[in-house]
Design brief:
Blueprint: E1 2-3, H1 9-15, H2 21-29, E2 33-39, E3 44-50, H3 54-62, H4 65-74, H5 86-89
Antiparallel strand pairs: 1-3, 2-3
């Protein structure tokens, strides 16, 4: 979960209507499957991804130039006093229940 700045919500959504094809390819190549972002009107952003190894998926993207460029552009949309890139703020949630 991340916090998008409230005054940047509309632009954040617009940017994600045109994610760079090379970024999408890099995500797929590094194990990001069924990746979705959900944004609440107060700026709370929840990401969902299926991957066999979340840390390996993060590490795979961390070394790519396309990711560095994307993160540099997206950083300005997020509230983070430490000034981290969005991908550096990601923490997995513990799965506690599933209803098939």
């Amino acid at each position: 979960m991340l916090q998008v700045k409230k005054d940047r919500l509309a632009e954040y959504k617009e940017r994600h209507k045109a994610v760079w094809p090379e970024m999408i390819a890099a995500l797929k190549e590094t194990g990001w499957n069924n990746y979705s972002l959900f944004l609440r009107d107060d700026g709370m952003l929840v990401g969902y991804v299926e991957t066999p190894d979340f840390q390996a998926a993060l590490d795979g993207m961390a070394g790519l130039d396309v990711n560095a460029r994307w993160q540099a552009q997206m950083k300005e949309f997020f509230e983070d006093p430490a000034g981290r890139n969005p991908d550096e703020q990601m923490r997995p949630l513990e799965h506690v229940m599933f209803l098939p």
